[in-house]
Specification:
220 residues; alpha+beta
Length: 220
């Protein structure tokens, strides 16, 4: 196995901050790889320039004892005790997780922290996939940005959006160029934005949600 290399404290293979080498291997990369389906290339990158997006400032602003926030090195045993994870798939940090008890979870993982966006079930995961696909269809088939070149929507404005979850844990929307934005809530109910996904990544995440919903349902 090839050894990892640190540059200014950042693993050049997976890019999250503050990783350490142990016998030539990045400790965080190795621990995440052991959970399955980890692909460093899927960690959040700016869809426009490809640069790694550091989200620790967003997630790290949440209270460290918040039950929804887990440090991937310090808190993973506590996470395993709370959630009996069976399998998971991630797209640019957005994780779809199936549980051995037949339940499911939606989370965001920036490599340093995992934030549990919602505890749900297979039906909820399929509903989130449906929500994403409705918006993707709206952008691809019903929205034409060339009809009004920039006068109606400013840069960053959402063209359309939909809430998801019993308590609207997530709001998903797209802007005029088709970037999907997810807004979540912290422990106090305050909204915070997560990194953008391209429409292709959003559709890939919808597929992952459906696959993990099937996996969770098989446990029921």
């Amino acid at each position: 196995m090839a050894h990892d290399v640190l540059e200014n404290g950042i693993c050049v293979d997976c890019r999250p901050q503050d990783h350490q080498l142990d016998n030539g291997e990045c400790v965080a990369c190795r621990s995440m790889a052991s959970r399955g389906h980890f692909d460093p290339s899927l960690h959040p990158h700016d869809p426009h320039n490809g640069k790694f997006v550091t989200t620790a400032g967003v997630l790290g602003a949440l209270l460290p004892d918040d039950a929804n926030l887990f440090d991937t090195e310090k808190d993973w045993h506590r996470y395993d005790e709370l959630y009996d994870v069976l399998d998971e798939m991630a797209v640019s940090g957005f994780a779809a997780i199936s549980m051995a008890n037949g339940e499911a979870q939606v989370a965001f993982d920036d490599g340093n922290h995992r934030y549990v966006l919602a505890d749900t079930d297979p039906a909820g995961m399929r509903d989130l996939a449906d929500t994403i696909e409705k918006l993707a269809d709206e952008f691809e088939n019903h929205f034409d940005p060339t009809e009004d070149p920039g006068s109606e929507y400013k840069v960053g404005d959402l063209v359309d959006y939909l809430p998801w979850g019993e308590d609207e844990e997530l709001v998903i929307g797209f802007d005029a160029v088709g970037d999907f934005r997810f807004t979540a809530k912290d422990a106090d109910g305050k909204p915070f934005d997560l990194p953008e996904l391209t429409i292709e990544q959003a559709q890939e995440y919808a597929d992952a949600l459906r696959e993990q919903a099937d996996t969770a349902e098989e446990q029921g």
